[in-house]
Amino acid sequence: MKYYLCLFLLFSTHTLLAESYPLADETVVFPGRISKINGTAKLIRFKIDFENAKFLNRYHRVELWNPVIPEKKCLGFVEGRTNDYLLIRIPKYEQCKSTIYFAAGSYLHMYSPDLENALETASELQDILVKKHTALSARLNRYQRTMAGYIEKIDVINKRYEILRQKLELEWQKELSILEEDKSKSYALYQKTKTKLHELNYKMQQYRVRDQNLKEDRWSLDPELYYKK
Fold first, then answer.
1. 56-95: per-residue pLDDT in tens?
2. DSSP class of residue 225?
3. CA distance 10 to 98
4. Global pTM?
5. Residues whose CB is less than 8 angstroms from the CB of residue 216 and which lie 6 or more positions away in sequence, other chains included
6. N or C: which end of the chain has fewer CB within 10 A?
């Protein structure tokens, strides 16, 4: 009688666990290997290696099972987490140990509904961020094209004003050349006129007629003694 009662209780417990913690979708199931067990504190430390562990926080609910007997599950709660380890508290430690049969080094599968909710929220947020990223990327490309357009416009303006500068410089040199030519002509006329003036002065000197031939002799101090010689 006691044997049948134990079987009934064990079957009832397994059925209750199976109904309370149904097999989760494989996309949110993660593995862990037991690295340390503290039965007194009802704590198990798992070595983990999956990126989504960053979404697990303290007090998150976790369902554990042996992949060999997936229909038997235990309930635990996250007590702490690092990049490589996950510390889980098992409220019904003794019952869980006799149900899924674990020990140090055991490889267990886990599922957290809180993790699933966090992943769903993160996915929704990721979709929003992707949309924002797309919008910002499009805006950045538009500004980049605008900046590239400014560079092209600057090149066009530089070329246009370079042509104008060259044209203005040619006109400047032309005006200076004309002025230099006028200066040369004026100088030639000046020299020619100067030569003619010298020649004229020479001829005037040759043909100059004095109004008298006598000169005053001013060697005497007495003006009355001045005389012309």
1. 999 999 999 999 888 899 999 999 999 899 999 999 999 9
2. G
3. 10
4. 0.54
5. 226, 227, 228
6. N
